[in-house]
Amino acid sequence: MNVLVLGSGGREYSIGLALQKDNDVEKLYFAPGNGATSNLGENLKISDYNELATFAKENSIDLTIVGPEAPLVDGVVDIFKKEGLTIFGPSAAAARLEGSKVYMKNFLAKYNIPTARYIETSSLQDAYKFIESLPTPIVVKADGLCAGKGVIIAMSHDEAKKAAGEMLSGNSFGDAGLNIIVEEFLDGYELSMFAICDGEDYILLPAAQDHKRLSDGDEGPNTGGMGAYAPTPLVDETLYQKVKDRVIRPTLDGMQQEGAPFEGVLFIGIMVVNGEPITLEFNVRFGDPECEILMPLMTTPASELFYKAATKDLGNLDVKFSDQVAVGVVMASENYPYSSSTPAEIIVDDKHHDELKHTHISYAGVKMEDGTLLASGGRVLVCVGLGDNIRQARDRAYMLCGQVHFAGKKLRTDIAYQAL
Ligand code: AMP
Ligand code: GLY
Questions:
Q1: Which ligand is nearest to the CA of 289?
Q2: What are phi and psi of 94, to 5 degrees?
Q3: Residue 206 phi/psi, 5° resolution?
């Protein structure tokens, strides 16, 4: 089949890598892709969704997979489906689970899915009143998409009030902050869980842990994620079952009742508090870098998994996972996450060591210029190591990190520490 992947990050590269190895895939396209996806398939310079749908029809694309949230919230799935195309991802209506935190929190409350105690408000007075009633820290969230920056964990009541004020006045996030959530802080350990959904059935992937802070020991500012590993030993069968029964099943049933059946990747951000999984948030797409470590753990062909999910046929699929562990270490550019960095050439040493056979790179913030691959900013790439256990996978990932060079490269040295 011919497959189109929408997006340009390491997440989309890793999906592309799995599809490239898949015998059923003939032609692979990326829109827009990055400087390295052009080695896996063809990059398209089409950004208009209607034009993309026309391209898909004219070029016999059998399956389109959407990586990031923005095109989903914008309704790319609805546009493709109207044209009779097969596309994997939620409709705009279902993507509101990520596009609006107010919608998501009210949905969780309506269907009795455990989440942090909260209020939704557009009134500064109400926000102040609720803030006063909470112990610190206090969490303040903008309603709309803010490129991962819309959540403030305030250490004092004054800081929480200031954050609420700046959001509600439109100063910090424009219209995305005109409605806010104020909620209690949950103290526990965080998990990323992913369910591939077809509206009715789902397949739960091995639980992963991301590392959101920039620096070792979970210090420094929040980022999109500096590394991840899966499966995590922090989840046992009991916890998986609780997530299935208390979160995923009621969510799929609830979205059907809301008239917006959920198809695509349901990304559940979970805080485990005293052994109980509490839903922090939903995203409607794969996590990045979680995708880069989950894709290599799936032994079912990627095209089959995503095609069956996109055609409401998951009930007939027996997904197989490898019994290995994957660890991914992000290499970011010098000024990440604050500002852009000067493009720098990426040099990867030859894989002279046997251990490196169990590693690969997933490229993200890169561009190709005159045949040279340049780190073009943000999170540049992910070094992935596979192994029989976490220590082995992590050692291999870090061995690969030592082989990759670009000016200003920045990485955490403690990925997977919670599991060791
Ligand atoms: P979100 O985008 O809602 O997942 O928030 C981003 C990050 O903020 C999460 O990954 C958590 O690390 C943290 N966070 C969000 N809500 C809470 C909460 N209620 N308690 C503790 N940490 C939170
Ligand atoms: N790594 C977390 C995210 O993709 O949102």
A1: 2
A2: -75, -30
A3: -55, 140
Domain made up of 123-178: CATH architecture = 2-Layer Sandwich (3.30)
Within 8 A by CB and 6+ apart from 257, the residues are none
C-beta 224 within 6 A of ligand 2: yes
Q: What's the CATH number for 189-316?
A: 3.30.470.20
Any residues with CB less than 8 A from the CB of 120 and at least 6 apart, and which? Answer: 102, 105, 106, 143, 179, 180, 181
Q: What is the pLDDT of residue 41?
A: 98
- For 325-405, the fitting CATH number among 3.90.600.10, 3.40.1080.10, 3.40.50.150, 3.40.50.2020 is 3.90.600.10
User: DSSP assignment of 223-280, as one string?
Assistant: -S-SEEEES-TT--HHHHHHHIIIIIHHHHHHHHHTT---EEEEEEEEEEETTEEEEE
CATH 3.40.50.20 fits 2-91, yes or no: yes
Positions of the chain with pLDDT lower than 70, given as ranges: none
Give, for ligand 1, the residue of 134, 141, 151, 267 to mutate: max count of ligand atoms closer than 8 Å to Cβ: 151
Give the pLDDT score at 407: 97
**Cβ 268 vs Cβ 282: under 8 Å:** yes
The whole-number pLDDT of residue 119 equals: 96
pLDDT recorded at residue 279: 98
